[in-house]
């Protein structure tokens, strides 16, 4: 997974990812992606490219458990989010919708940096722009398999039940 | 080695002797609750392609976010869920006019019991930790997995224990305590953790007040939050269920990530207010100066219960809502609505100039029944004050206790109840 860093601050709540007001219009990720992060950066949605990676500060996705805060990100073609910590509901929703949550120190990453997410024993992020490699928390096997399947629905379609 | 309450319940549900923090387990689910977003769950469930839900008796669906339907889109959603519920034989369905806010309706009707694993497609599902349930919010997709399998993966949380001693000062409530804690620990202060509240000040609380602590713990990131399972709780539950009730608690030698000691008397001198635009931006009322309010809201899964309506009614009785302020009151459930009618609370509030809306989430989620205009300020007994939460992104929401909301409605600005009423009303739980 390689992409361009799109950097946000800490405590980005789900209303800032996609405001509740827009949910009145539609829950379709392809509609909602047009309003992604509009409260924080009105130009973000227009500038997002498939493959871009969200890079944020602590407690990303706090607030509501609303899943559209994940599906709108996935809808925009963003495959992963890097943050030193996630709110647990966002973390779960991300895994269950095939969005890779990467828990790592993001303080040295700047807007536009080229990042590659690597998986071995654990996870790591190589910043191609600075040459630095950042260690990331390992993802337990079951969660990795759900993400790799593209989310819980495709996972269940493939396996029928949880493979532990 | 002993286990915390979260560990104990998860171990049992996962069929293991013990579990430890950070372990991933697959646990059976005892109760699966959804509101209108049951429609999203339904769509994912159909995608998985299984014909029947795992156990219709363990699914509860309660409409609360947009009732009655405020748009054709919502009406269509409601209709689709009704049809699904009928087709799947889901008996525990609370339609418009039958229930109210899901987190009130579940315990009120005896669906929640100590020791359960309860998941809900709503972040404030933590509320049910006040009933000794391992209760947490999940997304719609994983709920479709629960409807299919009756099980879900969980990361075992570490536990933060908060012991509160002493006695509350006049006018200080559970809301002030939990706002103070969130202010101290921050919005991620308990991220992915279980919280156990205990101590004399907690055990002296009503069940309704304990629900406030468990409910708002979500706003510091908690996965689950418990208050003690004791006689007070069992007295609440016994008339509501025929199922066996278990006195469950943490082991005496349980391991905690951290233990915090607070004194209700010494650490809480005055009402606490969460200021715009974050729940952890908490300040004591006296530091805020003059803050005129256009709207005051009393309701929600946090503070729309009978004791909340009662204290507001006692503050507003014989007084009027300030001419520049509007007061919106929303009982949390049909049962609370009826009790508040019977006891005269709603009459006192309406006589003072309050507008009473039907039980439901109301304007808390910013979709209807009291949206704010640009430049407006609201004082609210609800649970979130994010930018644009209740309407315009140029509006401001201050979160406060029901007593402060009522007093502010009279004063037309943020106000301490003692400036409106000289004597603290004596409250009785009904």
What do you see in this structure?
Chain A is of the alpha/beta class and 164 residues long. Chain A has one domain: Aconitase, domain 4, CATH 3.20.19.10. Chain A has 8 helices and 7 strands; from the N terminus they run βααααβαβαββββαα. In chain A, helix 7 packs across helix 8. Chain A is globular, with a radius of gyration of 15 Å. In chain B, strand 2, helix 2 (38-48) and strand 3 (59-62) form a beta-alpha-beta unit. By secondary structure, chain B is an alpha/beta fold. At the A-B interface, helix 6 and helix 8 of A face helix 2, helix 5 and strand 7 of B.
Going by CATH, the homologous superfamily of chain A would be Aconitase, domain 4
CATH topology of chain A: Aconitase, domain 4
For the record, what is the CATH homologous superfamily label of the largest domain in chain B? Aconitase, domain 3
Task: List the total number of helices of chain A.
Answer: 8
Sheet with most strands: strand arrangement of chain B: 4-3-2-5-6
Structural class of chain A: alpha/beta
User: Quick one: how many beta strands of chain B?
Assistant: 18
Indicate the low-confidence ranges of chain A by residue numbers.
none
Quickly give the structural class of chain B. Answer: alpha/beta
**CATH architectural group of the largest domain in chain B:** 2-Layer Sandwich
- Tally the structural domains of chain B: 2
Rg of chain A over CA atoms, rounded to whole Å, is 15 Å
Give the terminus-to-terminus CA distance of chain B: 41 Å
Give the % helix of chain B: 25-40%
Query: What is the percent of helical residues of chain A?
Result: 25-40%
Order of strands, widest sheet of chain A:
4-3-2-1-5-6-7
Q: SSE order of chain A in H/E notation?
A: EHHHHEHEHEEEEHH
Protein chains sharing the most extensive interface? A-B, 39 and 41 residues
CA-CA gap between termini of chain A: 26 Å
Q: Identify the CATH architecture of chain A.
A: Alpha-Beta Barrel
């Amino acid at each position: 997974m390689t992409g361009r860093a799109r950097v946000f601050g800490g405590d980005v709540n789900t209303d800032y990812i996609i405001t509740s007001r827009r949910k009145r219009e539609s829950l379709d990720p392809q509609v909602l992606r047009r309003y992604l992060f509009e409260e924080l950066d009105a130009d973000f949605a227009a500038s997002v490219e498939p493959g871009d990676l969200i890079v944020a500060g602590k407690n990303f996705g706090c607030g509501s458990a609303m899943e559209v805060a994940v599906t709108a990100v996935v809808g925009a073609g963003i495959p992963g989010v890097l943050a030193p910590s996630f709110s647990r509901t966002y973390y779960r929703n991300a895994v269950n919708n095939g969005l890779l949550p990467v828990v790592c120190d993001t303080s040295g990453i700047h807007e536009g940096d080229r990042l590659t997410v690597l998986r071995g024993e654990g996870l790591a992020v190589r910043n191609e722009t600075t040459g630095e490699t950042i260690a990331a928390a390992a993802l337990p096997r079951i969660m990795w398999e759900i993400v790799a399947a593209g989310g819980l629905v495709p996972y269940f379609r493939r396996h029928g039940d949880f493979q532990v | 080695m002993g286990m915390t309450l979260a560990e104990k319940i998860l171990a049992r549900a996962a069929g293991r002797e013990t579990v430890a923090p950070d372990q991933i387990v697959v646990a059976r689910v005892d109760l699966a609750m959804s509101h209108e977003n049951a429609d999203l769950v339904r769509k994912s469930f159909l995608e998985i392609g299984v014909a029947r839900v795992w156990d219709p008796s363990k699914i509860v669906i309660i409409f609360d976010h947009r009732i009655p339907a405020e748009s054709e889109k919502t009406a269509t959603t409601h209709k689709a869920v009704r049809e699904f519920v009928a087709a799947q034989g889901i008996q525990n369905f609370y339609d418009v006019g039958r229930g109210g806010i899901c987190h009130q309706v579940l315990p009120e009707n005896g669906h929640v019991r100590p020791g359960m694993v309860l998941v809900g497609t709503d972040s404030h599902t933590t509320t049910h930790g006040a009933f000794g349930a391992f209760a947490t919010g999940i997304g719609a997709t994983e709920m479709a997995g629960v409807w299919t399998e009756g099980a879900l993966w969980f990361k075992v949380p570490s536990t933060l224990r908060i012991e509160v001693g002493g006695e509350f000062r006049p006018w200080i409530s559970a809301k002030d305590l939990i706002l103070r804690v969130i202010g101290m620990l921050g919005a991620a202060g308990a991220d992915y953790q279980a919280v156990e509240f205990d101590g004399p000040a907690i055990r002296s609380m009503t069940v309704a007040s304990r629900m406030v602590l468990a409910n708002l713990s979500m706003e510091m990131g908690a996965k689950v939050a418990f208050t003690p399972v004791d006689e007070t709780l069992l007295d609440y539950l016994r008339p509501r269920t025929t199922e066996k009730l278990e006195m469950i608690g943490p082991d005496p030698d349980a391991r905690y990530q951290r233990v915090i000691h607070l004194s209700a008397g010494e650490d809480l001198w005055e009402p606490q207010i969460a200021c715009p635009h974050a729940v952890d931006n908490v300040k004591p009322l006296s530091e805020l100066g003059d803050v005129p309010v256009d709207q005051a809201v009393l309701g929600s899964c946090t503070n729309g219960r009978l004791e909340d309506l009662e204290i507001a009614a006692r503050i507003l009785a014989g007084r009027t809502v300030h001419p520049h302020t509007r007061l919106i009151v929303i009982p949390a459930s049909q049962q609370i609505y009826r009790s508040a009618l019977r006891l005269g609370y709603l009459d006192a509030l309406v006589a003072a100039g309050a507008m009473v809306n039907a039980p439901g989430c109301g304007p808390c989620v910013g979709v209807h029944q009291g949206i704010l205009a640009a430049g407006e300020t609201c004082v609210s007994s609800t649970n979130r004050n994010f930018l644009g939460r209740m309407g315009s992104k140029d509006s401001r929401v201050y979160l406060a206790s029901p007593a402060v909301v009522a007093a502010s409605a009279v004063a037309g600005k943020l106000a301490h109840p003692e400036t409106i009423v000289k004597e603290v009303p004596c409250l009785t739980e009904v």
